[in-house]
């Protein structure tokens, strides 16, 4: 029958099968109303990429999740660009957006593009040194809250008033500037008037805080109780780590990293508050709003100059608070009243987790022509604002600068001294800790100039000790072992009974040479061999760097002879034997049990001095020195001193008796007399009598 296909024939009529045109190299067939998969035409591999031309693809319609497919047809809803040759002739392009929930207006300015070259020249003067603004770019755009213009509103108004009418360019510039000014005044008049009114009355609301803080200005805050000035880098509304709204300020200050001065960043915040608040009651506010701004600037500049003189390694006295970061990020505070060594390079070396690194002072901030600062597009990633998130807490190139480069540094300017940090880093010799110190609490050391002279020793022995130590400090590089760095130090052993001046010798030598004295004890190292070696190496390295004298008091604790049964003690002794070989400084060892020393130490000791018991003349000199150094008046005569010196006492016992006698005299409001001393001796005589024989016996076996 006509119109019907024979199933066995394998042919089809034109009514049953239609072939669609080829599209994009694919042929689609439709059979019985069903669309089959397109058939790809065979591709000649020799033609791949050889056709000279462009093939455009376009994004298709997006679904609810913003996903789309690429297509080769232009979307039908695409219009023509609104910025073209016709819009380029206008001095300003103003983009407006719809405003909702505001009955006073239906449109608001979204952004302004400044196209007038004359207006750009004027804005370049008005916005000079404003961070992030380059007014000379071909396309200058302002958006968001227009912070640069609002912050420099007064300067803009003054610049327009100074424009003249002498030339055509001047007239044209004034026209464009007034157009720009009136446009912004109409848009932001209410906000500008409100801000200016609050500033004149010394108050500010939380919503208008951004108008108070101009990037590049100097702000004031108290950090750890210290007055601090910083340069404001940028501001932003956000939230703190607990999710509470706050106003973030990223500030820059000058710091020292152990080799050079540079800038560092600090994030400060002002929490949300309601109503108005006095500007000088804010945690941070402009320095110009301080009630004693001139006196404050003078104080901060003087402190910055002092911080500059403390750059490097210095031996100073300190009386104040020192602090360091605790295990959980807290500030552990310590009351320090002792001598310290200021050394930021050493801080970085021994505290790499809290090391100081800075950006060069001459490094320019990145700038851009498109200004969109402070826009209201609240993003979800701004819950906690951290401007330092990109530095990863590491210095440039992963290493800290060599301290030797510090001699080449440039002096700080007055403005850099103003924003210099109040903190310095150093080591407390009393508490044996690396701490942050405050510049204003650092003082010069009051040297005990008579300490070495009051040392009761034969003059030739004193000269020998002082000569060895001073020469070692000056010429330690002149002698070396076969192995480099080995045997450069000098070790002095002082042995003798208690109270004859062994420890005082090391202390008075350090005082005479005006160098730090590091008093190392068993508590500083512990007894675990795994940690003793590391701690001992660190201490020796610090003492070598500071040219300090290292005093190991009661050294027999660590240097006792090795035995077959005490494996742990043998480990400690072997550590000392090996590490002392590489010490490059001066070490004093004191002991009253030299007979217990391991024989291997004998070859490592350069000078061994025996301190005998005090003679009658020596004891008299000790009595004289203590009486002469006391602030309390005394009536002790020379004949009475002769009688006191006949008593077999060591220096420490004499000091204790005199101290007790002075307390007794003070109780009676009388001058110290011979009777007071004898009263104390009568009370404590039983102790001296019971120990004298034992002391004589022990003294006979010392070196």
Automatic annotation (TrEMBL):
Which GO-annotated molecular functions does the record name? ATP binding; ATP hydrolysis activity
CDD domains linked to this entry:
RecA-like_protease
Q: Short name of one Pfam family for this protein?
A: AAA
**Per the record, where are the segments of Polar residues compositional bias?**
20-35
Q: Which UniProt keywords apply?
A: Hydrolase
Ranges of residues in domain AAA+ ATPase: 488-613
Superkingdom of origin organism = Eukaryota
**Residue ranges, annotated region (Disordered):** 1-41, 389-409
The name under which this protein is listed is P-loop containing nucleoside triphosphate hydrolase protein
* Species assigned in the record: Lophium mytilinum
């Amino acid at each position: 029958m006509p119109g019907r296909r024979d199933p066995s024939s394998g042919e089809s009529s034109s009514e049953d099968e239609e072939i669609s045109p080829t599209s994009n190299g694919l042929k689609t067939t439709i059979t019985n109303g069903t669309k089959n998969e397109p058939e790809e035409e065979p591709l000649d591999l020799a033609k791949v990429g050889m056709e000279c031309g462009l093939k455009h693809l376009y994004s298709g319609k997006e679904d609810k999740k913003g996903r789309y497919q690429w297509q080769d047809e232009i979307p039908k809803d695409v219009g023509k660009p609104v910025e073209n040759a016709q819009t380029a002739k206008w001095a300003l392009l103003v983009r407006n957006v719809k405003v909702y929930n505001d009955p006073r207006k239906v449109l608001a300015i979204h952004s302004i593009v400044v196209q007038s070259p004359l207006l750009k020249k004027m804005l370049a003067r008005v916005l000079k040194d404003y961070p992030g603004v380059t007014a000379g770019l071909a396309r200058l755009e302002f958006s968001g809250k227009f912070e640069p213009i609002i912050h420099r509103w007064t300067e803009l108004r003054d610049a327009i008033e100074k424009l003249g009418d002498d030339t055509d360019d001047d007239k044209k510039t004034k026209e464009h500037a007034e157009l720009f000014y009136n446009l912004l005044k109409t848009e932001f008049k209410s906000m500008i008037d409100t801000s200016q009114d609050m500033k004149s009355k010394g108050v500010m609301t939380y919503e208008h805080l951004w108008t108070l803080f101009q990037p590049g200005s100097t702000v004031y805050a108290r950090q750890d109780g210290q007055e601090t000035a910083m340069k404001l880098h940028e501001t932003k509304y956000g939230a703190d780590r607990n999710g509470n709204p706050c106003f973030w300020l990223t500030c820059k200050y000058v710091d020292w990293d152990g080799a050079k001065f540079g800038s560092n960043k600090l994030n400060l915040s002002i929490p949300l508050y309601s109503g108005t608040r006095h500007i000088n009651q804010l945690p941070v506010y402009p320095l110009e709003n301080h009630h004693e701004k001139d006196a404050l600037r003078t104080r901060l500049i003087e402190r910055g100059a002092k911080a500059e003189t403390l750059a490097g390694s210095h031996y100073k006295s300190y009386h104040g608070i020192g602090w360091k970061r605790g295990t959980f990020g807290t500030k552990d505070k310590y009351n320090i009243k002792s001598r310290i060594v200021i050394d930021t390079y050493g801080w970085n070396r021994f505290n790499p987790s809290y090391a100081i690194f800075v950006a060069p002072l001459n490094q320019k901030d990145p700038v851009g022509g498109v200004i969109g600062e402070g826009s209201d597009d609240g993003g979800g990633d701004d819950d906690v604002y951290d401007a330092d998130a990109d530095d990863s807490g590491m210095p440039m190139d992963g290493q800290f600068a060599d301290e030797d480069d510090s001699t080449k540094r440039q002096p700080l300017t007055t403005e850099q001294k103003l924003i210099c940090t109040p903190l310095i880093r150093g080591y407390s010799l009393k508490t044996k800790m690396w701490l942050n110190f405050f510049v204003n609490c650092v003082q010069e050391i009051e040297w005990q100039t008579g300490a070495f002279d009051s040392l009761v020793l034969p003059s030739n022995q004193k000269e020998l000790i002082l000569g060895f130590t001073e020469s070692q400090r000056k010429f330690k590089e002149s002698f070396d072992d076969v192995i480099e760095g080995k045997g450069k130090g000098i070790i002095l052993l002082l042995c003798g009974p208690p109270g004859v001046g062994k420890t005082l010798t090391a202390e008075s030598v350090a005082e005479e040479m005006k160098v730090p004295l590091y008093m190392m004890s068993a508590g500083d190292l512990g007894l675990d061999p795994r940690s003793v070696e590391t701690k001992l190496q660190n201490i020796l390295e610090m003492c070598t760097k500071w040219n300090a004298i290292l005093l190991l008091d009661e050294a027999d604790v660590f240097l006792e002879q090795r035995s077959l049964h005490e494996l742990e003690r043998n480990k400690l002794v072997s550590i000392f034997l090996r590490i002392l070989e590489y010490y490059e400084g001066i070490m004093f060892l004191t002991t009253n049990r030299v007979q217990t020393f391991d024989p291997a130490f004998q070859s490592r000791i350069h000078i061994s001095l025996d301190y005998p018991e005090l003679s009658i003349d020596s004891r008299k000199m000790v009595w004289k020195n203590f009486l002469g150094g006391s602030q309390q008046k005394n009536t002790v005569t020379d004949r009475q001193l002769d009688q006191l010196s006949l008593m077999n006492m060591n220096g420490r016992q004499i000091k204790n008796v005199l101290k007790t006698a002075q307390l007794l005299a003070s109780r009676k409001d009388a001058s110290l007399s011979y009777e007071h001393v004898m009263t104390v001796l009568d009370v404590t005589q039983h102790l001296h009598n019971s120990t004298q024989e034992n002391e004589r016996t022990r003294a006979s076996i010392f070196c």
